[in-house]
Amino acid sequence: xxxxxxxxxxxxxxxxxxxxxxxxxxxxxxxxxxxxxxxxxxxxxxxxxxxxxxxxxxxxxxxxxxxxxxxxxxxxxxxxxxxxxxxxxxxxxxxxxxxxxxxxxxxxxxxxxxxxxxxxxxxxxxxxxxxxxxxxxxxxxxxxxxxxxxxxxxxxxxxxxxxxxxxxxxxxxxxxxxxxxxxxxxxxxxxxxxxxxxxxxxxxxxxxxxxxxxxxxxxxxxxxxxxxxxxxxxxxxxxxxxxxxxxxxxxxxxxxxxx
Length: 259
Hints:
CATH superfamily of the largest domain: NAD(P)-binding Rossmann-like Domain
């Protein structure tokens, strides 16, 4: 019996965790539909996947804050491959800073991409995922669990996305679509590098000193790797995780102490 090549959409795929997720699915034999705003970085990723011998990768560049863009991504996937098996909503970074210095537009923008972009992608992808009995993984973040003063946008966005995902999993329970969330902790990406650089300037430290001081404060012996997040996401989309639905998985090295 011929088995069709599975298809996954990965948003925010141009760099960091999203890029690692797409690479992991490519190695696992998926067609990857890679979405982000940076077309050049997406083209670079598609070339990397092709060089590694992965199935075809489809680039769909665009801004997921545009209400019509998620539907375009799903339609492109179906036009190219005729099916959809998994969606990984990874797009979206929120602004950190002093609450009194953050404007309404900062809050609106934070929800526009990470929350509303994911909601629209789930809506657009639901019918083909129901047909394939597929799955959704929404990448959230440990800020959902532990409010901190400088993360008054990201924390609420992340919490809302977990609540939404739980509600959608309740629907999926009866329709054959699994919906889970994954909360990365402190992961060695460009975003973390920038935070360390800011901390180094503020404290008058070298980069290495600042990195060590931040890790010590967080109680970590090392930072996580994007590839570790990618492997966990692929597991959640695998047959081995076929009875996991409506669950949040923290991949944070134990940084979150709460229950």
